[in-house]
Every structure is written in C-alpha cells, then in structure tokens.
C-alpha cells in the first residue's frame, strides 16, 4: 500500500477545476496537476531536501505536454530563529500570466498541499530525532 495525498479543487460545489495528486517516490516530492477531466497538465517536482535549513526550497512546475518549466513554488528562508522556533513558513508561487484562471486556482491549491506535506515531513523528522535521542539516553 502506498501513502499519497490528493486534493480535489472546486470553484463551486458543481464546478470541478482539477486535482493534485502526490505521487509516491523514494527520494523527492512529486505531484501531478490534473484538469477537470483528469488529464495531467503539469508536474511539480521538489528537491531532495525540503528543509529550509538547506536554503530556499524550490518546487519546479513543468508542462506535462512538453516538459518545459513554466513556474515554481518556493519555500523561502525565514532566518534561523524563525525556522528553529516557529511553525511559520513563507511560500511563493510563480506561473504564467496567461494561464487559465481555473488552473491558477489548482496550482494555488497545490501550494497548500505542498505546505502540509513538507510540514508533515518535518514533524516526522523531529519525532524520529526525539525518539532516537531518548533511546540513547536511557
């Protein structure tokens, strides 16, 4: 069984705009952005290290049709104190100006899904560190 995150995006309860699916990968985050008909329109690929301590974290947005990079989602470095002592994150998104408004909404929703996925990964890392530390201090 594989764990995946998936999000459906609607503008009204009757108007389906598309979906975001987190694809299972071993080393780096990977997402498919689908239109309302379920066709993959974009792919989002993240870096191996999604922690801000590695610097600014960028997720590239690629066209599924030709593989061209069309934008990015960035998790911006907030400074050592903010990164170490708060759960606050700063994200930004860049995509083509002429992109259809419904797909802009789906990409914005992808930003929220990526935010949650990276926070979950960070919390699991913190729990693992705490558990390992407690194991070796007993």
TrEMBL record:
Record keywords, A-Z: Calcium, Lipoprotein, Palmitate
Gene Ontology CC terms, in alphabetical order: plasma membrane
Cofactor(s) required, per the database record: Ca(2+)
SUPFAM superfamilies for this protein: Tubby C-terminal domain-like
One GO MF term: phospholipid scramblase activity
Family from the record: Belongs to the phospholipid scramblase family.
Function: May mediate accelerated ATP-independent bidirectional transbilayer migration of phospholipids upon binding calcium ions that results in a loss of phospholipid asymmetry in the plasma membrane.
Protein name, as recorded: Phospholipid scramblase
Organism field: Notodromas monacha
Taxonomic lineage from the root: Eukaryota, Metazoa, Ecdysozoa, Arthropoda, Crustacea
């Amino acid at each position: 069984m594989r764990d995946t995150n998936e999000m459906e995006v609607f503008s009204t309860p009757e108007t389906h705009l598309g979906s975001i699916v987190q694809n299972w990968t071993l080393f780096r985050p990977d997402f498919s952005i689908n239109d309302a008909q379920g066709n993959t329109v974009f792919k989002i690929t993240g870096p191996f290290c999604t922690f801000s301590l590695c610097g600014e974290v960028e997720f590239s947005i690629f066209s599924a049709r030709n593989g061209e990079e069309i934008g990015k989602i960035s998790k911006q470095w907030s400074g050592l104190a903010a990164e170490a002592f708060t759960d606050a994150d700063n994200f930004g998104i860049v995509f083509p100006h002429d992109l259809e408004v419904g797909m802009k909404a789906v990409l914005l929703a992808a930003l929220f899904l990526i935010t949650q996925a990276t926070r979950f990964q960070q919390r699991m890392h913190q729990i693992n560190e705490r558990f390992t530390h407690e194991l070796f201090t007993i």
